[in-house]
């Protein structure tokens, strides 16, 4: 019996590696380095072998796993939600900022800076249960369309990154999202879009309260931001939530610098990946001067730190999951 | 080939269920109800079947998975560490509270209340990297012994609960610790003692900072408590970290009431378990009047809410993992 089982294993093993796990990545140094890294850490005979429990890969979301132009998609959701709430009850627009937001006047919000942003977030993201909030995100994803591509927002995920996440999981990694985006917002689509379950999504969060007033315990989103999952907040959040240092980190902006720095400074094999938005034809081209996804430190220091700088225009055969 | 494999499966399947997965639990209603619950949620033909991804079980630690008398073990660690630090550098004992703590004068700390506790925690738990802190916990566990039992503290885990955790995992559950104890403290022993990996340990935490001053990125424990994982904090922390409501929760004090309430109020099959400390012979007997592990609401309301109240003296054949 054992001999028969062994024979099966020997026959089947070669088949498993035949298909390219990253078909949307063109032949490139980026792809070669990623595959070489994964091969090394998963080969028990390689000195760089890493046990599965430590195969943790973390990825930023906006600009890394899905697009982020012309504005973070979550801000579009916030404004759309404000407009919808105001249609039913115009009195909620208690300030010129909120009135502008409900009309989709991005320029006004941008000029209002952090204070305006918090005002819009509070009015659109708090005072309701997590369940109600997430139902409103689901509905928005079903109906809203991106102004330039006409795609549902959750189909503007990057097909090469979706493949990378799947490939890593197939090789025994656990894949996490660690993003400046809202925790409760991202959890709505992360499992369907990326195969990342809710407990592997880390993000910025509002406070919550536990209420039993009506006899049913409910968790309610409170106003204000309790934790910003950006810059140093990323390694801090990972350490607090996982208690492990990842061996692979991917991002696209200087908000990811500390996460990649901490990841790749660990002992043993490590990989940092930066997505460089170079494709003005198929997506957007932006880096050092962009108000969204600004990338300066990563371009200046990343190559010397051994990070893979992915050139979207050169390295990717395909961009969005939702368009062939 | 397939027929041979199938024959093996049929031959071997019956063997798997023969051994009692909970040998340290005596015959009791508590054990019967726990096993019946697990059987139901893992049987695809049962209307109460729950898919593995939603089989989340959460457990308090102090008084639920290990003992907590005469004081929380982490407080003993804090005082022992202060004494050790002061032996090398007496000037760190900058107040009568800290002097008393380094001498192990529990009464003084107790009388100083929350403020004294924070002072002791700050002096013993902050200003060092997470790695250094955890190394000091490892060393303490190797050397310190409980004053009454003479056991290492991490052998004063409850054998019946260690078996329950393993049983649940064998049945496709993921087991989490959600405790008022310190996150960084518990992660040192949770994997060896309970089989719970660091990313499945939730607890109270100090703030941390990300420092790169010496060129090496390090996460440093800051003074003060950033989040108290007790009472309403428990469901809040679970929702924030997991994004799922557990189907099973275990605790021993009113600090666990909200966690059990939220867990068992969910749709579908749910189980709440309270460990009632009734065994003055083999452990300690305490509940309504105890300053540590006070249990009033759980005893008053738990039975009507369908929670299993475990009678330690009656239901457990054996108490500590470290003593037969
Ligand atoms: Ca980004
Ligand atoms: Ca407890």
TrEMBL record, chains A, B:
Which positions carry the signal peptide feature in this UniProt record? 1-19
Organism expressing this protein natively: Ruegeria denitrificans
Official protein name in the record:
Haloacid dehalogenase-like hydrolase
Per UniProt, the keywords (alphabetical) are:
Hydrolase, Signal
Q: What is a GO molecular function of this protein?
A: hydrolase activity
**InterPro entries in alphabetical order:** HAD-like_sf, HAD_sf
């Amino acid at each position: 019996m054992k001999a028969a089982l062994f024979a099966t294993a020997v026959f089947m093993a070669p088949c498993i590696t035949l298909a390219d796990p990253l078909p949307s990545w063109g032949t490139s140094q980026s792809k070669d380095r990623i595959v070489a890294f994964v091969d090394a850490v998963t080969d028990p005979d390689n000195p760089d072998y890493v046990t599965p429990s430590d195969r943790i890969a973390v990825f930023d979301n906006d600009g890394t796993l899905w697009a982020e132009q012309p504005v973070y998609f979550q801000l579009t959701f916030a404004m759309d939600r404000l407009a919808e709430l105001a249609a039913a009850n115009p009195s909620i627009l208690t300030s010129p900022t909120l009135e502008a937001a409900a009309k989709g006047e991005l320029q006004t919000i941008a000029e209002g800076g952090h204070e305006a942003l918090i005002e819009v977030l509070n009015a659109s993201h708090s005072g309701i249960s997590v369940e109600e909030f997430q139902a409103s995100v689901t509905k928005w994803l079903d109906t809203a369309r991106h102004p330039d591509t006409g795609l549902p927002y959750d189909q503007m995920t990057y097909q090469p990154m979706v493949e990378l996440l799947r490939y890593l999981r197939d090789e025994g990694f656990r894949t996490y999202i660690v993003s400046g985006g809202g925790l409760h917002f991202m959890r709505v689509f992360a499992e369907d879009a990326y195969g990342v379950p809710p407990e592997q999504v880390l993000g910025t969060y509002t406070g919550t309260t536990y209420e039993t007033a009506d006899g049913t315990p409910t968790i309610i989103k409170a106003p204000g931001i309790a934790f910003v999952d950006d810059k140093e907040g990323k390694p801090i959040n990972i350490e607090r939530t996982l208690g492990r240092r990842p061996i692979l980190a991917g991002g696209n902006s200087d908000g990811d610098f500390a996460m990649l720095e901490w990841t790749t400074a660990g002992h043993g094999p490590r990989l940092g990946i930066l997505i460089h938005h170079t494709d003005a034809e198929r997506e957007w081209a932006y880096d050092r001067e962009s108000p969204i996804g600004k990338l300066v430190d990563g371009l200046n220091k990343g190559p010397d730190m051994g990070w893979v700088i992915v050139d979207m225009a050169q390295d990717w055969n395909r961009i969005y999951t939702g368009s062939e």
